[in-house]
Design a protein that fits this description.
Chain B: Keywords: Cell membrane, Membrane, Transmembrane, Transmembrane helix, Transport. Chain B: It is a multi-pass membrane protein. Chain B: Pfam families: BPD_transp_1. Chain B: Belongs to the binding-protein-dependent transport system permease family. CysTW subfamily. The complex is a heterodimer of chains A (about 350) and B (about 280). Chain A is α+β, with helices and mostly antiparallel strands and about 350 residues long. Chain A folds into two domains: about 5-230, Rossmann fold (3-Layer(aba) Sandwich); about 235-345, Nucleic acid-binding proteins (OB fold (Dihydrolipoamide Acetyltransferase, E2P)). Chain A has helices at about 40-50, 90-100, 105-120, 135-150, 165-185, 195-200, 220-225, 230-235, and strands spanning about 5-15, 15-25, 30-35, 55-60, 65, 75-80, 155-160, 185-190, 205-210, 210-215, 240-245, 250, 255, 270-275, 280, 290-295, 300-310, 310-315, 330-335, 340-345. In chain A, a hairpin with a 2-residue loop joins strand 4 and strand 5. In chain A, helix 2 crosses helix 3, helix 2 packs parallel to helix 4 (about 135-150) and helix 3 (about 105-120) crosses helix 4. The longest helix of chain A has 18 residues, at about 165-185. The model of chain A has no long low-confidence stretch (mean pLDDT about 90). By secondary structure, chain B is mainly α. Chain B has a single domain, classed as Orthogonal Bundle (MetI-like fold), CATH 1.10.3720.10. Chain B has a two-stranded antiparallel ribbon. Chain B is globular, with a radius of gyration of 24 Å. Chain B starts with 12 loop residues before the first helix and ends with a helix. Classes of the chains: A alpha+beta (about 350), B mainly alpha (about 280). The interface of A and B includes residues 52, 75, 76, 79 and 146 of A.
Chain lengths: ~350, ~280
C-alpha cells in the first residue's frame, strides 16, 4: 500500500504507556491532523513516525517498507518543529539549502531550488537575510520551505502554528492546506487546536490517553462523533443523559422525545446536540422547558444559556434569528431526532 | 524597572567599590610591575629606580624568543586539545539524565580542588618506568617492557590538559545546556547523521562560546609554570618558568617584570586578533 501505515504501535516511558496500540493508515497524499489534549500521545506518535523516538512495540511502514528501525536521517522526511528550530548561524537561504547541502547537491542546484522555494513561500529576495531578522510568520514559512526542500515522502509538523497570533495562524492554516494540495504530499500535523484541524485536514485523528478515539473526515467527526470525549472535544456540544423505559420510549431529563431510539439492548446513553441545532420555542411548545440564565451576544452569534432541571443547555443562533428572550424567562427547547447523536458509553 | 542616566555625583557611588577593588588589586600591582620593568638592576643587590630599556633589550634574544614561542605554542595546543575533548564530552553530558550530570560535575569539580603540585607528582608517577601505566600495558602484553614516559612534551601536555579540562567543561556546560535540542533533531530529520548534525549545527551555533573558551584555556595554560618543570625537560619550560627563575632565584626583579609585561602584551594582542577574526566571521 502506498502511504504511511502504523501497526499496533506502542510507546512506553518506564511504566507509563504514552501510546497504546495505535493502528492508522494514511493513504498517499492525505492531510492528517492529530488532535487531542496535551499529554494524549500525539507528539510522541509523530516523533516515532520521524524516528526521533523508537516504538516499544509495533511497526511503522512507509510505502510498504518497514521503517520502524530506520534512522531518522535516512527516512527522507521533512519536519517542522514547534520551536521551528531554524539554525541561528545560517541565513534564510542557507537554512533552506541545508538538507540539499547535507546530501551533497551541487551549488547551482542548491541555489536554484532555494529560489524556487523562496518564491513558493513569497519570500523572494530574502535568501541572504539572517533568520533572526525575520518576523514570526516569515520564520514559519522558512521552516516549511526547509522541510520541503528535498520534496520529502512525508511532511510532519508538530504544533507548527502555535507561536503565531490568532489572525496570522488562521491565514497560515489556509496557506498550508493550499500548499499541501498543490504538492500532493502526505502530511501529518499535530495540533491541539480543533479549528486548525477542521480547516486543514482530510482526516482528523482524535486522540486521548494514548489511544485513537476516532479517525474520520472533519465533518464526520463533527456530525457523528464516536463517543462523548470526541463530541465534547470537537466544537461545543450539549451532552445529555438519556434513558429508555421498558416500552422503548426514550426520555431526556424526564421528558419523552418522539422518534429517538437507543441502540438495541441499551437502556441508557448520552445524547450530543450541537448548540446550533438547539431551537428555542415558546414555553411548552418544545420537548423541554427551562429558564434562560444568561445571554452572550457576540455580535456574529448569540449564545443563550438555558437551565433545565439543573442541567445547562446552550443554544446558538445568528443575529437574524435572534431569539426574543431575556434572562429569567421561561423558554421551550425543540429537540428533533435528526439533530441528536446517541453516543456509546 | 525604570533606568535613568546618573544625575549627580552621588549616583555614581555604587561604582566606587568595584573601582576601588580593581585599583587596589589590579591597577596598582600591574603599574608597579611596569615601573619595575624599567628599573636598573643592582648586581648582588636588588634594584634602583631608573628608566632604562636594558631589560627589554636583553629579552629580545633568540633564546628568550624561542621560549616565548614555545610557551604560546604549548598554551594554544592545550587550549585546542581541551576544547576538542571537552566539547563532545559536555555535549553528551548535557543529554544525560540529571543524576548522571551531577555525579560527573562533582567529579570534575573535585579535580579543581587538587593543587598543581599534586597533579604534577601524580602524573609523574603514572608516567614513571617503575610504577607507571606502561606496566599495565606490559601486563596486558601490549608492550614488551615498561618505560618512562616523562620527562617529555607529551607528559607536559597531558598534565596541563588534565588540569584545564574541568574548567573547559564548566565554561561550555551552560551554553550547551541552553542550546535548543530540537536544533539537532531538526538536522537529523533533514538528513544529517548524528555526527554530521554535531559538526554542522552544534559546533557552528556555538562558535562564539568555543572562541571564548579557547581564549580562556589559552590564558590559563600560559600561566602554568609547575607542570612543565615537573613533567618536562628544560626545553619544555615556559616563559612563566623563566620569570619565576629570574624573580625568585636570580633576584632579577626588573628583568622578570619586563618578561611578564611582554607576555601580557603578546597575550592581549593574540586575544584581540581572535576577537577581531571572530567578528569578521560573524559579518561574513
Amino acid at each position: 500500500m502506498s502511504g504511511l501505515a502504523l501497526q499496533n504501535v506502542v510507546k512506553e516511558f518506564g511504566s507509563f504507556r504514552a501510546v497504546n496500540n495505535v493502528d492508522l493508515n494514511v493513504p498517499h497524499g492525505t492531510f492528517v491532523c492529530m488532535l487531542g489534549p496535551s499529554g494524549c500521545g500525539k507528539t510522541t506518535l509523530l516523533r516515532m513516525i520521524a524516528g526521533l523516538d523508537l516504538p516499544t512495540g509495533g511497526a511503522i511502514r512507509l510505502d510498504g517498507d518497514d521503517i520502524t528501525h530506520v534512522p531518522t536521517h535516512k527516512r527522507n522526511l521533512g519536519m517542522v518543529f514547534q520551536s521551528l528550530a531554524l539554525f541561528p548561524h545560517l541565513t534564510v537561504g542557507e537554512n533552506i539549502a541545508y538538507p540539499l547541502r547535507i546530501r551533497g547537491a551541487a551549488k547551482e542546484d542548491q541555489k536554484k531550488r532555494v529560489d524556487e522555494l523562496l518564491s513558493m513561500i513569497h519570500l523572494t529576495g530574502y535568501a541572504d537575510r539572517p533568520v533572526a531578522k525575520l518576523s514570526g510568520g516569515q520564520r514559519q514559512r522558512v521552516a516549511i520551505a526547509r522541510a520541503l526542500a528535498i520534496s520529502p515522502k512525508l511532511f510532519l509538523l508538530d504544533e507548527p502554528l502555535s507561536a503565531l497570533d490568532a489572525k496570522l495562524r488562521e491565514a497560515m492554516q489556509v496557506e498550508l492546506r493550499q500548499l499541501q494540495q498543490k504538492l500532493g504530499i502526505t502530511t501529518i500535523v499535530v495540533t491541539h487546536d480543533q479549528r486548525e484541524a477542521m480547516t486543514m485536514a482530510d482526516t482528523v485523528v482524535v486522540m486521548n490517553g494514548g489511544e485513537i478515539r476516532q479517525a474520520a473526515s472533519p465533518i464526520e467527526i463533527y456530525r457523528r462523533p464516536a463517543d462523548s470525549f470526541v463530541a465534547d472535544f470537537i466544537g461545543q456540544t450539549n451532552l445529555l443523559e438519556v434513558q429508555a423505559d421498558s416500552t422503548g420510549r426514550v426520555e431526556v431529563l424526564g421528558q419523552p422525545i418522539a422518534g429517538l431510539a437507543l441502540p438495541a439492548g441499551a437502556s441508557k446513553g448520552t445524547l450530543s446536540v450541537r448548540p446550533e441545532d438547539v431551537h428555542l420555542t415558546a414555553p411548552g411548545a418544545g420537548a423541554l422547558t427551562g429558564k434562560v440564565t444568561f445571554v452572550r451576544d457576540l455580535g456574529g452569534t448569540i449564545e443563550t444559556f438555558v437551565d433545565i432541571a439543573g442541567r445547562q443547555i446552550v443554544a446558538v443562533s445568528t443575529p437574524r434569528a435572534r431569539p426574543d428572550v431575556t434572562v429569567g424567562q421561561e423558554v421551550g427547547i425543540a429537540l428533533t431526532p435528526d439533530v441528536c447523536v446517541v453516543l456509546k458509553k | 524597572m525604570r533606568r535613568e542616566p546618573p544625575q549627580t555625583l552621588g549616583d555614581y557611588a555604587p561604582l566606587l567599590f568595584p573601582a576601588a577593588m580593581l585599583t587596589i588589586f589590579f591597577v596598582v600591582p600591574f603599574g608597579t610591575m611596569i615601573a619595575v620593568s624599567f628599573f636598573q638592576r643592582q648586581q648582588g643587590g636588588f634594584y634602583t629606580p631608573a628608566f632604562v630599556f636594558d631589560n627589554y633589550a636583553r629579552f629580545l634574544s633568540a633564546f628568550f624568543g624561542g621560549v616565548l614561542g614555545f610557551s604560546l605554542l604549548l598554551a594554544i595546543t592545550v587550549a585546542i586539545c581541551c576544547v576538542v575533548l571537552a566539547l563532545p564530552f559536555t555535549y553528551m553530558l548535557t543529554r544525560m539524565a540529571r543524576k548522571v550530570q551531577v555525579v560527573w560535575l562533582v567529579a570534575l569539580l573535585s579535580i579543581l580542588s587538587l593543587s598543581e603540585v599534586i597533579i604534577g607528582f601524580a602524573w609523574s608517577t603514572l608516567f614513571s618506568r617503575t610504577a607507571g601505566i606502561t606496566n599495565i600495558l606490559v601486563a596486558l602484553g601490549i608492550m614488551s617492557e615498561a618505560k618512562a614516559l616523562t620527562p617529555s612534551f607529551g607528559a607536559v601536555l597531558t598534565g596541563m590538559v588534565y588540569q584545564a579540562f574541568p574548567y573547559t567543561v564548566l565554561v561550555l556546560f551552560p551554553a550547551l545546556v541552553r542550546l535548543d535540542p530540537t536544533l539537532t533533531e531538526a538536522a537529523r530529520t533533514l538528513g544529517a547523521s548524528p555526527l554530521k548534525a554535531f559538526f554542522t549545527v552544534v559546533v557552528p551555533a556555538l562558535r562564539n562560546t568555543i572562541t571564548a573558551t579557547l581564549i580562556m584555556v589559552f590564558i590559563f595554560a600560559l600561566g602554568s609554570y609547575l607542570l612543565p618543570q615537573l613533567l618536562g625537560r628544560p626545553q619544555h619550560w615556559t616563559l612563566s618558568v623563566l620569570i619565576t627563575d629570574q624573580a625568585i632565584y636570580q633576584s632579577n626583579m626588573p628583568f622578570a617584570a619586563a618578561m611578564a609585561v611582554f607576555l601580557v602584551l603578546v597575550t592581549l594582542g593574540l586575544v584581540a586578533l581572535t576577537v577581531i577574526a571572530g567578528r569578521k566571521g560573524e559579518a561574513a
